[in-house]
Amino acid sequence: MNRLEGAARPHLTKMLQGKRFMMSGDEQLAVARWCVAKLMVAEHGPETDPMTPPEERRTFAATLQIPDYYRVYIGAHSCAAQIGYIRRSSTISLGPGGPIPKLDGMSRNVQQATFLVGKAFVHINAARVDGFDIEDRFSMPLVQKHMRIWPPSHDRRKWPGGAILNPDQIRVLSNSWQTIAQSKRAVWGGEIDPAWI
Questions:
Q1: What is the pLDDT of residue 184?
Q2: Contact 121, 75 (CB under 8 A)
Q3: Which of 41, 54, 102, 140 is the most buried (most CB within 10 A)?
Q4: Residue 155: its pLDDT value, please?
Q5: What is the number of other CB atoms lying within 10 angstroms of the CB of residue 41?
Q6: Are 90 and 192 in contact (CB under 8 A)?
Q7: Would you state the pLDDT for residue 185?
Q8: Of 107, 89, 106, whose CA–CA distance to 54 is shortest?
Q9: CA distance 70 to 125
Q10: Global pTM?
Q11: How far apart are CA 169 and CA 78, in angstroms?
């Protein structure tokens, strides 16, 4: 955790203060790793169901390799609050045989988290489901095209990318998984039972 903090701190400090700057690919990776580490820790809070399997958390701790199903976005916001956090997790299956890959002792295979830190917001989508990406079901081009830092889409990225999100836009973003779940395209089988999408 200390090496993650040290690598990300110079860039995060600028973001928290709302300073504009150009992020290199290495800087994007350092910030993305910090964001993923924070979410992996938050997965184990009271009354939460972790989504990232233990072996993938161990691999991340040892190699800092972000699981390939994580999508990390970071931008600026105009909310009055300087700190905030919301996380949602679910279990889905795209077919009658259950989730692929199998849950293997986990009770969740999809999660979404949004948190505010100073003038920055972080948004993470993670779907450990073959053939499924949250971004394919809910499009927010301003965020998805201009604020994604993992996997990287540009060698260099301006921060903040695109516009500064207002409280309503942050609310829509942080509730996007709930919107997908309530759409006519989703039929849910309960809190933990797999759902069809």
A1: 57
A2: yes
A3: 140
A4: 87
A5: 11
A6: no
A7: 56
A8: 106
A9: 6
A10: 0.89
A11: 10
Q: Across-strand partners of 163?
A: none
CA distance 167 to 98: 37
d(CA 156, CA 149) in angstroms, rounded, equals 10
Mean pLDDT (10-residue bins), the chain, 197 residues: 88 91 95 96 88 95 96 95 93 86 92 95 95 86 87 88 89 88 53 37
The residues, ordered by sequence, that sit 6+ positions from 69 with a Cβ below 8 Å of its Cβ are: 126, 127, 128, 129
Token readout for 116 is: 């505010």
Q: Which of 132, 122, 150, 42 is nearest to 89 (CA)?
A: 42
3-state secondary structure the chain: CHHHHHHHHHHHHHHHCCCCEEEEHHHHHHHHHHHHHHHHHHCCCCCCCCCCCHHHHHHHHHHCCCCCCEEEEEEEECCCCCEEEEEEEECCECCCCCCCCCCCCCCCCEEEEEEEECCEEEEEEEECCCCCCHHHHCCCHHHHHHCEEECCCCCEEEECCCCCECHHHHHHHHCHHHHHHCCCCCECCCCCCCCEC
Q: Give the pair of three-digit tokens for residue 96.
A: 């009658």
Place of tokens 């009271």: 46
For residue 72, which of 106, 1, 23 has the smallest C-alpha distance? 23
Structure-block tokens of residue 66: 């972000």
